[in-house]
């Protein structure tokens, strides 16, 4: 037993006089090693000791010690005095001091580490320091005192650092404190290197004074208060447990798991991964960050940003779980004493439940599939969920999700097309088309993300309006036809009132082929298949990914959150008819899409919606939003769309073409080829590749024009016809034509226009067309429809269609041309300057 041992009673390097520096260093090493070994061998058993690395000595991690870092193995194993002595004997140049891990591992030992103002604090604490073992060094007015915390209080106290109180002292609890050996000197250089001295008896450590225990209890209370966790005592399985309760368990474990200082990255990572396994969101990051920030040796890492945040985002599901964290806590305080008694019982129940949860499947596979399919036919989603959960439990599955995945796998197997040779795939009657040429692939999945209120829903529903009515769409500076089709909107983000208001702002009416489903859940796979087969939509809008994922057990930052999106993309055209799916998602604080990057990987295109810059606003105007194509499997990355509120408060969405500044012409060879084909096609001529190669306005190489034609035809912007070559008779060449908005009227005779009053008198039927006059300045969005009507009128005799009758309205009486409006649209009239100014102000307020 060591009793009343002081460093002054032993020879030290301070007593050596007149020796050279080399001799002094050698004599100090040999002398202090023997002293250190003698000191260690007298230490009592039952305390967690640690050999301490010498200053600037390389550790196992390769980093250099600062003279206070414990041997890595001591963090995980209780080392006896004999274990410490063995390491010092083997490597005396490496280990030159010994320390103690404070806390439950060492029978409740706690360090009161006074860094300054020792004489004043001694007067304040009077007799409470007498009889306590004390550690001194060359630092003046400083010392460490050892006390003991009663076992019944171990779970109620916490240590704190120098900066927490500003009182000149810190309390080491769960951390390591040196008691004897080499002292590396103070970090500020004021105290020189020397030796730690120890005086006292480790077998007679007094109980901590009440004022010290009060401060430690207060530190523990501040932590709980700052975290703001709500205590919720429900004995649930960890996968279904309330996050606040899981966070409380994690917090209890972190209170006793110490940081390991410099060179402990593996330990730090393992703690973070264990937390992430159960609480992968911001709450888990907060817990890990708060624990990490308590390690004083990494204080410099927190000067600019949270070092935990980028590492947290890289975590994935793996073998490190919450059980790993509990094991770490058990090493510090055995018997789960770090948990309150009620939570201790919860963990015991969960562990026993995990053992008994494994059971045999009692339903044969064919009967299980038949019963599951029968349940999927139910109309009531609540009853469906209830019966699927009951069937899953009866069959021995953990939840209904596993059973539904089994059913999906069975349906795919029955198709017998998930495993095919390349010849079968090539011969399969499938091809990529476009719902809107060069914009919406069919089949395809597009994700639109933006900040709240930026117009994500309005963008998607404007696309829906074009598809529902077959309105031409502006692509690369001119209008292209859009094939009319049904639209299905699956809403989980907004109320009925908001949806109705936005529909009215877009002037969507009763006759538009649009179906809206409220309260949608993106995990309703079979109901989704049934809806698509029933309504045969060309376009599906899901608003939004987060709003429709309320029942998901996964966090947005986990890859599993993107599982339904992968399912939609992989089975589009296989389990349900091919369609274009537009997903609305929210942006994060930095403007990128929120959640796991797997969302981006799962879709064909990613559109980012934002306000235009000041420079862009000079061209677009204030009542606009720019949509940048961030990702495109069709090679459209970098292009933009323009969403604009018109003077009549309706919306226009079109391709945003940026022209070359010096020429005002399209910059790329693709755009130039398309422009030349549009000019020729409007005259009914078209162009061959040879003619385009010799066209000086096309520019570009022969190979570039060839690739441009291939790309434009693939995107549905041009068509081609074979004809006999005029240069080489007997050979065939392709003549290319641009797809124009008038093409949708080639084989359709427009009905004879009638006045709105006359149409309304016919049994209350809504008008199909209205002969209302509009100028391009007043209604930009009407231009493609007006153009198509004029083309149809001018070519009416050639196509066998009669010309349109003149309207009886005042506008047409002035000799203006007729204008075909979309079905269900509102009549437009000329407005005064004051009215137009009021409309513009209303538009600006809408965006704001």
Q: Could you name the key traits of this structure?
A:
nine-stranded mixed beta sheet; 28 helices; 848 residues; alpha+beta; eight-stranded antiparallel beta sheet; disordered N terminus
Commentary on this structure:
The chain has 848 residues and is of the alpha+beta class. It folds into 6 domains: 7-216, no CATH class; 228-356, no CATH class; 365-425, no CATH class; 430-656, P-loop containing nucleotide triphosphate hydrolases (Rossmann fold); 669-744, Winged helix-like DNA-binding domain superfamily/Winged helix DNA-binding domain (Arc Repressor Mutant, subunit A), CATH 1.10.10.10; 750-847, no CATH class. 36% of the residues lie in helices and 16% in strands. It is built from 28 helices and 24 strands. The longest helix has 21 residues, at 21-41. The protein is elongated, with a radius of gyration of 38 Å. It starts with 20 loop residues before the first helix and ends with a helix. Residues 1-30, 224-238, 354-360, 659-666 and 744-831 have low confidence and may be disordered.
């Amino acid at each position: 037993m060591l009793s009343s041992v002081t460093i002054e009673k032993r020879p030290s390097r301070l007593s050596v006089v007149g020796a050279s520096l080399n001799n002094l260093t050698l004599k100090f090493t040999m002398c202090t090693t023997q002293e250190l070994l003698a000191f260690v061998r007298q230490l009592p058993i039952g305390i967690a000791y640690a050999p301490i690395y010498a200053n600037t000595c390389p550790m196992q991690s390769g980093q250099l010690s600062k003279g206070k870092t414990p041997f890595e193995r001591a963090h995980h194993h209780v080392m006896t005095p004999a274990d410490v002595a063995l390491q010092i004997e083997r490597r005396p140049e490496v280990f030159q001091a010994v320390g103690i891990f404070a806390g439950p591992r060492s029978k409740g030992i706690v360090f009161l580490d006074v860094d300054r103002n020792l004489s004043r604090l001694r007067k304040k604490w009077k007799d409470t320091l007498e009889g306590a073992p004390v550690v001194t060094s060359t630092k003046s007015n400083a010392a460490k005192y050892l006390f003991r915390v009663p076992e019944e209080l171990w779970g109620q106290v916490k240590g704190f650092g120098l900066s927490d109180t500003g009182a000149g002292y810190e309390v080491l609890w769960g951390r390591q404190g040196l008691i004897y050996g080499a002292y590396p000197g103070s970090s500020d250089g004021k105290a020189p290197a020397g030796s730690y001295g120890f005086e006292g008896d480790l077998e007679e450590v007094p109980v901590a004074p009440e004022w010290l225990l009060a401060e430690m209890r207060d530190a523990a209370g501040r932590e709980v208060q700052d975290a703001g966790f709500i205590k919720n005592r429900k004995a649930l399985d960890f996968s279904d447990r309330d996050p606040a309760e899981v966070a409380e368990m994690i917090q209890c474990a972190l209170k006793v798991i110490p940081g390991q200082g410099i060179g402990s990255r593996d330990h730090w990572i393992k703690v973070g991964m264990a937390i992430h396994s159960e609480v992968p969101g911001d709450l888990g990051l907060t817990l890990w960050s708060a624990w990490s920030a308590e390690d004083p040796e990494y204080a410099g890492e927190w000067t600019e940003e949270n070092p935990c945040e980028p590492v947290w985002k890289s975590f994935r599901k793996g073998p490190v779980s919450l059980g790993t964290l509990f094991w770490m806590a058990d090493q510090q305080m055995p018997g789960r004493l770090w948990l309150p008694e009620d939570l201790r019982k919860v963990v015991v129940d969960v562990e026993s439940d995990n053992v008994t949860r494994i059971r045999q499947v009692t339903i044969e596979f064919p009967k299980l599939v038949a019963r599951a399919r029968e349940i999927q036919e139910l109309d009531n989603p609540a009853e469906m969920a209830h019966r699927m959960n009951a069937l899953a439990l009866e069959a021995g599955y953990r939840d209904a999700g596993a059973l539904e995945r089994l059913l999906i796998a069975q349906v795919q197997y029955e198709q017998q097309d998930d495993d095919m040779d390349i010849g079968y795939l090539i011969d399969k009657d499938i091809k990529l088309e476009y719902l809107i040429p060069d914009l919406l692939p069919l089949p395809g999945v597009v994700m639109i993300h933006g900040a709240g209120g930026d117009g994500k829903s309005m963008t998607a529903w404007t696309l829906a309006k074009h598809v529902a009515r077959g309105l031409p769409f502006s692509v690369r500076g001119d209008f292209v036809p859009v094939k009319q089709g049904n639209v299905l909107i699956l809403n989980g983000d907004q109320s009925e009132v908001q949806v109705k208001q936005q529909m009215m702002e877009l002037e969507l009416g009763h006759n538009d082929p649009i179906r809206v489903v409220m309260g949608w859940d993106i995990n309703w796979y079979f109901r989704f298949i049934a809806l698509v087969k029933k309504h045969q939509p060309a376009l599906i809008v899901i608003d939004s990914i987060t709003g429709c994922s309320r029942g998901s057990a996964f966090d947005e930052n986990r890859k599993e959150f993107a599982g339904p999106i992968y399912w939609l993309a992989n089975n589009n055209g296989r389990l349900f008819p091919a369609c274009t799916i537009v997903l609305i998602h929210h942006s994060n604080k930095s403007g990128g899409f929120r959640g796991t990057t797997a969302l981006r990987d799962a879709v064909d295109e990613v559109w980012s919606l934002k306000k235009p810059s000041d420079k862009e606003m000079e061209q677009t105007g204030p009542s606009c939003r720019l949509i940048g194509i961030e990702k495109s499997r069709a090679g459209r990355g970098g292009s933009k769309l323009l969403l604009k509120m018109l003077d009549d408060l309706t919306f226009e969405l079109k391709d945003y073409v940026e022209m070359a500044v010096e020429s005002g012409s399209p910059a790329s060879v693709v755009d130039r080829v398309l422009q030349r084909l549009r000019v020729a096609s409007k005259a009914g001529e078209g162009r061959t590749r040879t003619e385009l190669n010799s066209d000086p306005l096309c520019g570009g190489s022969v190979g570039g024009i060839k690739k441009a034609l291939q790309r434009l035809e693939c995107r549905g912007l041009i068509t081609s016809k074979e004809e006999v070559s005029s240069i080489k008779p007997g050979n065939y060449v392709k003549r290319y034509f641009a797809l124009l908005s008038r093409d949708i009227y080639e084989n359709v005779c427009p009905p004879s226009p009638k006045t709105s009053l006359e149409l309304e008198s016919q049994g209350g039927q809504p008008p199909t067309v209205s002969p209302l006059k509009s100028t391009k300045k007043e209604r930009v969005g009407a231009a493609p429809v007006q153009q198509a009507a004029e083309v149809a009128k001018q070519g009416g005799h050639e196509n066998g269609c009669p010309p349109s009758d003149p309207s009886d309205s005042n506008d047409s009486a002035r000799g203006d041309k007729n204008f075909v409006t979309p079905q269900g649209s509102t009549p437009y009239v000329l407005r005064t300057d004051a009215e137009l100014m009021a409309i513009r102000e209303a538009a600006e307020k809408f965006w704001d």
